[in-house]
Amino acid sequence: MAIVPRPVTLEPRAAERRRARTRRARRETATAWTFTAPATVIILGLGIIPVIWSLLLSFRADDLVTPGRWVGLDNYRALAEDPNFHTAVSNTLVYAGLYVPLSLAGGLALALALNRRIRLIGLYRTLVFIPFVVSATAQGVLFSFILDPQFGAANSLLHKLGISPQGFLSDPDQALYLLVLISLWSGVGFCVVVFLAALQDVPPELVESARLDGAGRWRVLRHITLPTLTPVGIFLLLWQFIQALQVFDLVYVTTKGGPLGSTTVIVYFVWEQAFRTFTAGYGAAAAYVLALALFVAGAALRLTRRRQSARTEAAPEAAPAVLKEGAAR
Amino acid sequence: MTHTAHTAETAPSAPTPAGGAAAWKTTPVRRPPGRRLPFSAWHLVLAPLALGFALPLLWLLLSSVMTDAEINRFPPALWPEGIDLGGYRYVLGNAMFPRWFANSLVVSGVAVLSNLLLGSLGGYAFARMRFAGSRLLLGLMLATMVIPFQLTMIPTFLVMKRLGLIDTLGALIVPALVTPFAVFLFRQFFLALPREMEEAAWIDGCSRLRVLFSIVLPLARPALATVAVLTFLSTWNDLTWPLIAINHDTQYTLQLGLTTFQGQHHTRWSAVMAGNVITVLPVLVAFLLAQKTFIQSLTSSGLKG
């Protein structure tokens, strides 16, 4: 009944709407910035700024207390000649060279063994994984007790077997290898979990049809299971390598880099330079060398991931071809 | 080997709710239902292996209830004659140990809560709002995930020193308040949620904050659990940063306390082991209670997809 007044022109309304839209957008921007501000301040403030600061530090002689002075590339030059740094690098590489392949092979073998439906399997998986959540500190304390030359259960056991007592972590020839073993005890569980998750992606139809075609267990493993696991394996390889380069806590708790520098790894070296001998600039330079190695590993990871995602898209067609090839032989 | 927060090297992918937990509970091997094997030969392989992994932890538990006489004789006893709680009594009666426990609890508790809050706030803004500079900001945050902690630890120490936080729990809490991982994980999770309900509430005049708290977060339980679990694991287990940031033993965390405890009480191994049990216990309990989420968050935090 009421007569709705019709607008005479559209112009003012459009302008108003536009203004309202910009107002809303501005308000949205303000809200968004408030939402992200705390994260931005903390993450960028303690992420980006220290990276640059660290780079500047690495060009200085600095003890963290008195004002330092600019020394240019001297720290890096000194690192190149420092026998202690060389030892740290080679110890880290030995550690990584043993830990990475062993954790992968062990993880794969265990995952294959644990990938079956039998009673108690959940318990077995849990027991294999549990050491992973135990902190490196607790592991270190526990194993320095077990491996204590005097009071340790390990020597007690060797005694029962008639083997002479060992020095273990106090023996420069054994310490680094024992650290690898301790890390394996806790680190294998992670590989097992990842491989177990990847085993889910093995297409059961493929396995069944291969079986029907007369392929044995070994062939199925070789031609179907392992190719499916390859991408995850490459990921784990680099992931574990990155972890291995950063090992520190376990070393600090068990051996403090000793005996005779036999377990001084790169991060331990960095920590020692910065917070023990107060040559922070030198430590920062060593940290930059480590970071460079990690960036190379990270870039490799990125590259393989990109290539691998391209490959998995092609997988449905590729997989039967592999199967055919396997059956034809 | 303490992971995630500081050392996450790769951009994590969106959580895959099916992946990890499914792998933990079931196997792809399909057996006709009803056909049950009474005994599998695999038990002969798996049982000793699993026991081997459990053995050091079993030994931890056993030695914590041994008497010092049992530990100190040679060769030491491999099995306690009775349960002796002297080690626990000594540790809990120690003036410092309960305090370290409380410190660890405060640091981890604040870190978990604030990662959930600040991470979801940031993640929500990146997932649902358009604002100038959002892409650059997100890119920068993600870039910090590939920075190894060792590179930033010296300047972070200097920053904390300028803030006057060194030797206080603040120095442990501030860097752990929010991680790029939490922001990114929440963003990915929110992107996968349908927008319709939020939009309806928003049009009805609900504020963004209210939409987040009353609609989005109740749907985001898996993401909340993942962030909580990984934050707790990395803060509770961390040693490197407390070692740098804390000097005075009243501010120690459990992990840090344990390392000095070991040196001071070499003769009282039972006390050291009791302390170790108390340090490991919270993570172990958390793991056993939330096994599914734990496994899921590990496999989804950068592995699948």
Automatic annotation (TrEMBL), chain A:
<dbReference type="InterPro" id="IPR051393">
    <property type="entry name" value="ABC_transporter_permease"/>
</dbReference>
<keyword id="KW-1133">Transmembrane helix</keyword>
<dbReference type="Pfam" id="PF00528">
    <property type="entry name" value="BPD_transp_1"/>
</dbReference>
<dbReference type="InterPro" id="IPR000515">
    <property type="entry name" value="MetI-like"/>
</dbReference>
<feature type="transmembrane region" description="Helical">
    <location>
        <begin position="30"/>
        <end position="56"/>
    </location>
</feature>
<protein>
    <submittedName>
        <fullName>Sugar ABC transporter permease</fullName>
    </submittedName>
</protein>
<feature type="transmembrane region" description="Helical">
    <location>
        <begin position="175"/>
        <end position="199"/>
    </location>
</feature>
<feature type="transmembrane region" description="Helical">
    <location>
        <begin position="220"/>
        <end position="242"/>
    </location>
</feature>
<feature type="transmembrane region" description="Helical">
    <location>
        <begin position="126"/>
        <end position="147"/>
    </location>
</feature>
<keyword id="KW-0813">Transport</keyword>
<comment type="similarity">
    <text>Belongs to the binding-protein-dependent transport system permease family.</text>
</comment>
<feature type="transmembrane region" description="Helical">
    <location>
        <begin position="93"/>
        <end position="114"/>
    </location>
</feature>
<keyword id="KW-1003">Cell membrane</keyword>
<dbReference type="InterPro" id="IPR035906">
    <property type="entry name" value="MetI-like_sf"/>
</dbReference>
<dbReference type="GO" id="GO:0055085">
    <property type="term" value="P:transmembrane transport"/>
</dbReference>
<feature type="domain" description="ABC transmembrane type-1">
    <location>
        <begin position="89"/>
        <end position="303"/>
    </location>
</feature>
<feature type="transmembrane region" description="Helical">
    <location>
        <begin position="280"/>
        <end position="301"/>
    </location>
</feature>
<keyword id="KW-0812">Transmembrane</keyword>
<dbReference type="GO" id="GO:0005886">
    <property type="term" value="C:plasma membrane"/>
</dbReference>
<keyword id="KW-0472">Membrane</keyword>
From TrEMBL, chain B:
<keyword id="KW-0812">Transmembrane</keyword>
<dbReference type="Pfam" id="PF00528">
    <property type="entry name" value="BPD_transp_1"/>
</dbReference>
<feature type="transmembrane region" description="Helical">
    <location>
        <begin position="100"/>
        <end position="124"/>
    </location>
</feature>
<dbReference type="GO" id="GO:0005886">
    <property type="term" value="C:plasma membrane"/>
</dbReference>
<protein>
    <submittedName>
        <fullName>Carbohydrate ABC transporter permease</fullName>
    </submittedName>
</protein>
<feature type="transmembrane region" description="Helical">
    <location>
        <begin position="211"/>
        <end position="233"/>
    </location>
</feature>
<keyword id="KW-0813">Transport</keyword>
<keyword id="KW-1003">Cell membrane</keyword>
<feature type="transmembrane region" description="Helical">
    <location>
        <begin position="41"/>
        <end position="62"/>
    </location>
</feature>
<dbReference type="GO" id="GO:0055085">
    <property type="term" value="P:transmembrane transport"/>
</dbReference>
<dbReference type="InterPro" id="IPR035906">
    <property type="entry name" value="MetI-like_sf"/>
</dbReference>
<feature type="region of interest" description="Disordered">
    <location>
        <begin position="1"/>
        <end position="27"/>
    </location>
</feature>
<feature type="transmembrane region" description="Helical">
    <location>
        <begin position="269"/>
        <end position="290"/>
    </location>
</feature>
<feature type="transmembrane region" description="Helical">
    <location>
        <begin position="169"/>
        <end position="190"/>
    </location>
</feature>
<feature type="transmembrane region" description="Helical">
    <location>
        <begin position="136"/>
        <end position="157"/>
    </location>
</feature>
<keyword id="KW-1133">Transmembrane helix</keyword>
<dbReference type="InterPro" id="IPR000515">
    <property type="entry name" value="MetI-like"/>
</dbReference>
<keyword id="KW-0472">Membrane</keyword>
<feature type="domain" description="ABC transmembrane type-1">
    <location>
        <begin position="101"/>
        <end position="290"/>
    </location>
</feature>
<comment type="similarity">
    <text>Belongs to the binding-protein-dependent transport system permease family.</text>
</comment>
